[in-house]
Design brief:
Layout (H helix, E strand, L loop, with lengths): L3 E12 L2 E12 L3 E5 L6 H8 L7 E6 L2 E2 L5 H5 L3 E4 L11 H6 L14 H7 L1 H4 L11 H13 L5 E5 L7 H16 L3 E5 L3 H7 L2 E6 L2 E7 H6 L1 H8 L2
Parallel strand pairs: 3-8, 3-9, 6-7, 7-8
Antiparallel strand pairs: 1-2, 1-4, 4-5, 9-10
């Protein structure tokens, strides 16, 4: 049986008086790729932030590798092998590409060091050409590559990508999808949030759709590809 890396049960989260998550269950197993879907404002980012301790849930439980993570600070959760690529990327604009990468590099908790500085640069040749550029000098696509590379240098067991290709030119987005495919092939579990549902279902094992803070639909990706109308019913404009 694969290890359960991250699990939320009956999660309720609020922003002030606004009840955003309403009893959400969500699980990611070792080596699994899960698409987290929903229209804007349905709670996807809040779910991620609630599982990572950035937002404190009002009720429900979060388990990290089987441990009850209630009250854990975010750094303790991420040190269990979870890396987060947030919407908006969150690079350090005043640091160079090299500095952004080197500052995050560390082995996994078990000492594994599959992702090295050299491997990241081989995976992202654009970054290798821009090592002395400041983070603010990069294009949006290059910033996304930098954020993913920085996350990989923590040698995670789970990589969470929130809006993986939002705002990127089609050719750059295609490159990001290729890289995400390589990451998955390397055995890293992934949670992928993106509006391009065809690309998401092409790379994930299964998918969870949120509607108004609740899980409205779940399916494996083979089913989603065979019957896209079922997803469109929840996601179409």
């Amino acid at each position: 049986m694969p290890e359960v890396l991250l699990e939320a049960s009956e999660l309720h989260s609020y922003y002030g008086a606004s009840h955003v998550l309403r009893g959400v269950d969500f699980v990611v197993n070792e080596g699994e790729s899960v698409g987290l879907m929903g229209r804007n404002g349905m709670g996807k980012t809040t779910l991620i932030r609630s599982m990572l301790g950035i937002v404190v849930p009002r009720s429900g439980t979060v388990r990290v590798r089987g441990y009850d993570a209630a009250g854990w600070p975010t750094f303790r959760i991420t040190r269990q092998g979870i890396a987060y690529v947030p919407e908006g990327r969150g690079i350090f604009p005043n640091l160079s590409v090299r500095e952004n990468l080197v500052m995050s590099a560390r082995p996994a908790a078990d000492g594994r060091c599959d992702w090295t500085y050299d491997r990241v640069l081989a995976t992202f040749p654009r970054l290798a050409e821009r090592l002395d550029h400041g983070g603010a000098q990069l294009s949006g696509g290059e910033q996304q590559m930098l954020t993913i590379g920085r996350a990989l240098l923590t040698n995670p067991s789970l990589l969470i990508l929130d809006e993986a290709t939002e705002g990127l030119a089609p050719l750059i987005a295609k490159e990001i999808w290729r890289i995400v495919g390589e990451i998955r092939a390397a055995g890293i579990a992934t949670v992928i949030v993106d509006k391009n549902y065809a690309h998401v279902t092409a790379i994930t094992d299964r998918n969870v759709v949120l509607v108004k803070g609740q899980v409205a639909y779940e399916c494996d990706s083979a089913t989603a590809r065979a019957d896209p109308a079922a997803l469109h019913a929840f996601l179409g404009v």
